[in-house]
Amino acid sequence: MSRLVFKRYSSTITTKSTPSKAHHHQPIPVSSFPSGYLLTGVHAGVKKKAGALDVGVILSTSERPTSAAACFTRNAFKAAPVIISEKILGENVGRARAVVVNSGCANAVTGAQGIEDAWAMAKETDALLSPNSSGLPPTTSQTLVMSTGVIGQNLPISKILSAIRSQRDGSQQTLGNDFNAWERAAKAFMTTDTFPKLRARKFNINGVEYRMAGMDKGAGMIHPDMGPPALGPLHATLLGCIMTDAAISPRSLQRALTYAVERSFNSISVDGDMSTNDTILLLANGAAAEKDGVKLKEIDEGTDREAFEVFKRELTDFTIDLAKLVVRDGEGATKFVTVTVKGAPTYEDAHRIASRISTSALVKTALYGEDANWGRVLAATGSVPLSSPLHANKVSVTFVPSDGSIPLPVLINGEPEKVDEARASEILSLEDFEILVDLGGGETAEAAQYWTCDFSYEYVRINGDYRS
Amino acid sequence: MSRLVFKRYSSTITTKSTPSKAHHHQPIPVSSFPSGYLLTGVHAGVKKKAGALDVGVILSTSERPTSAAACFTRNAFKAAPVIISEKILGENVGRARAVVVNSGCANAVTGAQGIEDAWAMAKETDALLSPNSSGLPPTTSQTLVMSTGVIGQNLPISKILSAIRSQRDGSQQTLGNDFNAWERAAKAFMTTDTFPKLRARKFNINGVEYRMAGMDKGAGMIHPDMGPPALGPLHATLLGCIMTDAAISPRSLQRALTYAVERSFNSISVDGDMSTNDTILLLANGAAAEKDGVKLKEIDEGTDREAFEVFKRELTDFTIDLAKLVVRDGEGATKFVTVTVKGAPTYEDAHRIASRISTSALVKTALYGEDANWGRVLAATGSVPLSSPLHANKVSVTFVPSDGSIPLPVLINGEPEKVDEARASEILSLEDFEILVDLGGGETAEAAQYWTCDFSYEYVRINGDYRS
C-alpha cells in the first residue's frame, strides 16, 4: 500500500555483503527419510511468482494407525487452520494421516469463510488417502492444516483445491519419498525464508532403526510460545512438520513433542513477535516398527519408559536442529547467537532471562555492530523479575567463540574485567558465538538456552515494506 | 571498540530527511518557574566535547522543609547513584534539599568505587546548601544523585567534584532561577537526546497559585518500570527531576509520584530496554505555600484529600508531558504514536497490551514504513496473557489521525474492513497519530495509554556503534 520512503543515511552507509545462507540447506541421503510417507509441493498460485511452490501435501501410507501430536500458537487470534487442526486432532484422539500446508496467505482473521476454506483443504486432502483403515468416524477429517503468509485476506481456495486434486491425477502427480519430494514439500512452506529447511536423522530404540525427517519455516514474526492443543492460542509464523516411522502412542507422542517444543521452537527469537499461525505437527506411522518380521507394539511412556526417554531425547535434539535453522535464516540476520543462562534458581527463571537477552533491541543492534556491549546484556538480565532475588555480585558474563578458541570473560562476579578489545572484536566478528551468563547459583542450579540473531538495516527494510 | 561496517543496502536506500525535533523545546516565561530553587549546568569534562554541559545542580533555597519523593529502576543491577539516593531518601524519611546529576557516565557496575564516588557527589553538593535548617542528622546527606551514560566505567570523579565546587566560588557561580539556569540544568541531563527537555506549568489549589517545572532525558534504553524506593531495582536510562513550590507531606508526595509515574514514564517505550539508572525525583519546597501572609500547612492525603487529588492530577498531567518528550526524541524516531487500549477487563490488562503493541518490532517497523499493518497490531494484542479470555470477535482496531480528521476503522468486531489505502497512507504519513484497540468490554471496562515511536535505520545505526 504505502510507498516506503527510506530516510537520510544513504551517504553514511557503507556496505558489507551478507553471504548467502543457502549452504545451511544440504541434500540428505534418501536412506535417511522415514518409510511410509509420500510428499510433494506444487504451485497453486497463492504466491504470485510463476512456479513458486505454495501448497504442500504429506501423506502417511503406513497400514498401521498413524499417531499425531501438535503444538499450536497461544495467540488469542488463532488462524482458521489452527482452529480446524486442533478440532480434528481432538476428535481423532491423536490420530491423523495427512498434512496440507499453504504459504502466501495465513488464512487468519478471515471469519466464517476462513474456517470453511481450511475445512475444504482438509477434506480435499483426505481424498488422496487410501480407503479409510483408520477407524475414524467419516464426519471428521484425517488431515491437519497449516497456512502462513499475510493476515486478513481470504485464501484463493479454488486454486488450492485444484492443486491438491492434481495429485489424484496420474499425469500430474508428483508425490514421492525421495529427496526431491521432501525438498518440494519443504519449499511449499517458505515465505520470506531464503532457503528450504529440511533435516533427517536415524536413531535406534531396542535394536530397531527408525528414521525421522522434518521441515520448518520461519524468517519473521518469530517468537513462538506454543502449547499442546486446548492449552490455548498465540500468533507468529513458525510452521514445522516432523515425520517418523516409529510407532508411539498418541498420548506419549504429545508428551514428547510438548517437552521438545519448549526447549527448541519456544526457545528461539527473531524479532520477539508471536504469530497467530504457529504450528508444529508430528506424525508417527509405525512403518518401521518391526523386528524379525514381527510388528512391534506402540512405544508408551507407561509401559516402556526407557524407550520413551530415548525417543524424547532424539526428538528434542531434532527439533533444536530445525529451530536453529529458523534463526539462521531470520529476516536480515547476519549473526547466529546462542544465549546460555546458567546458575539460575529455576529453569523458568533461566529461560525468561535468556529470552529477554535474545529479544533486547539494544543487545541485537550491538551484535549487528559487532560490539561486545556486556552492559546491555546485564541490563536485560537485571530487568527480569525472578522467583528469588538476583545477587548482582555473583553474576558473570562470558563471550564464547564458536571456533573452539579461548572464551573471553567480560564480567566476573559482578566486577567488569579489563577487556582485550581486539580479542572481543575477533569473537564478535564470527557468524556464530555464544553469550554465557552465569547467575552464580552453582552447578546444581538450573540452565536454559535460547537462539537469536542480530537486528540489521535489512530487518527494518524487509518489515518496513512487507505489504508493499 | 569494533569498527561498525554497514551492510549492502546503500544502493537501494533512498533518503527522506528527518526534520529537527528541536522545536519541541520552547522557551518558558520566567514567571512559570517555581520559587525557592537555584539551578545550573556546568562542563566538568565527563563528556569529551568542549563545553558540553555534563554536571547539573539543583538546590532548594526555601526556608521550609523540602519534601522529596522518587521512583527508581526495578533492575537487579542498580547503579551506584540509585543505591545511594534510595538510602539517603530512606534515612531522611522523605526529605532532601538538593539534586546533583551527571551525564556521560552511568556509574553502573562500578563496585565499591562507584558507591564512594556517588557519595562524594552528594557530600560536595551539600556544601552548596545554606547551613542546615533541615534537622537531618549530619551523618547523612541532603542531596540525591543521578548519573547516565556508559555502563561499567568509573566516573572522572575529581573533575565532577571540582565542577560542583565551582558553584561555591563567586566568580564562576552560574546558579540561578531564570530560563537560562533551568535550561543549563536540563542540558546537563542529555546523552543521545537531540534537544533539552524542559517544561513548566502553574496550578491552583484552594485559591493559591503554585508552579511546577521539570526536566528529563531519554533517547535510548527506554522502557522504564520504576517503583517507589524499596520496591526493588530495574535498568534503562530515563532520568527526570521535577520541582514544585507547593508544600506537601513526604508520604503524600510519594503516593502522588508513584501514581503519576505508572501513567507516564512507565507507559512509554523507545526500544523496550530497561536501564540500571532510571530515576524520577520530585522536590516540593513549600516556597509558595502562603496565603494572606500566613504559611500554609503541608498538603496531606489524610487531612485534605481534595487538595491532594488536585495535586496528583496536575502532577500526572505534567509527568505525561515530560514522558512524551522522551518518546518524541527517541533514538532514530520519526513518528510519535499513541497506543490506546480500551474495553479491557482490568487496567493492568489494558496496560500490558498497550505495552506489547508499543514494543513490537514488527509494529514499529511498519510504522516507520507508514504501513497500516493492523495484522501485526492484532498479533501483538493476542500474544498477551490476560486475566480473562479475549473475545476475538469483539475486537476493533482504528487508526486515529492527530489532525482532527475522520478516524479510519480497519477491524470492527473481529472482521477486517475494506480499507481505503489512500486514506490509510494519509494518516500513517502524519508525524503523530493514534492506534486505538477496543477489546469490546464496553464503556465501563478499563483503558490504558502508551506512547511509542517507530523503529528506523537510524535506530540501528545509533545503537550499532554507540560505544565506538
Automatic annotation (TrEMBL), chains A, B:
The alpha and beta chains are autoproteolytically processed from a single precursor protein within the mitochondrion. Substrate binds at residues 191, 217, 237, 331, 463, 468. Gene3D superfamilies: arginine biosynthesis bifunctional protein suprefamily (3.30.2330.10), ArgJ beta chain, C-terminal domain (3.10.20.340), L-amino peptidase D-ALA esterase/amidase (3.60.70.12). It catalyses: L-glutamate + acetyl-CoA = N-acetyl-L-glutamate + CoA + H(+); N(2)-acetyl-L-ornithine + L-glutamate = N-acetyl-L-glutamate + L-ornithine. Pfam families: ArgJ (PF01960). Pathway: Amino-acid biosynthesis; L-arginine biosynthesis; N(2)-acetyl-L-ornithine from L-glutamate: step 1/4; Amino-acid biosynthesis; L-arginine biosynthesis; L-ornithine and N-acetyl-L-glutamate from L-glutamate and N(2)-acetyl-L-ornithine (cyclic): step 1/1. The active site is at residue 237. It is found in: Mitochondrion matrix. InterPro entries: Arg_biosynth_ArgJ, ArgJ-like_dom_sf, ArgJ_beta_C. The record marks 148-149 as: Involved in the stabilization of negative charge on the oxyanion by the formation of the oxyanion hole. Keywords: Acyltransferase, Amino-acid biosynthesis, Arginine biosynthesis, Autocatalytic cleavage, Mitochondrion, Multifunctional enzyme, Transferase. It is an enzyme of class 2 (transferase). Its EC number is 2.3.1.35, 2.3.1.1. Belongs to the ArgJ family. Heterodimer of an alpha and a beta chain. Catalyzes two activities which are involved in the cyclic version of arginine biosynthesis: the synthesis of acetylglutamate from glutamate and acetyl-CoA, and of ornithine by transacetylation between acetylornithine and glutamate. This is Arginine biosynthesis bifunctional protein ArgJ, mitochondrial.
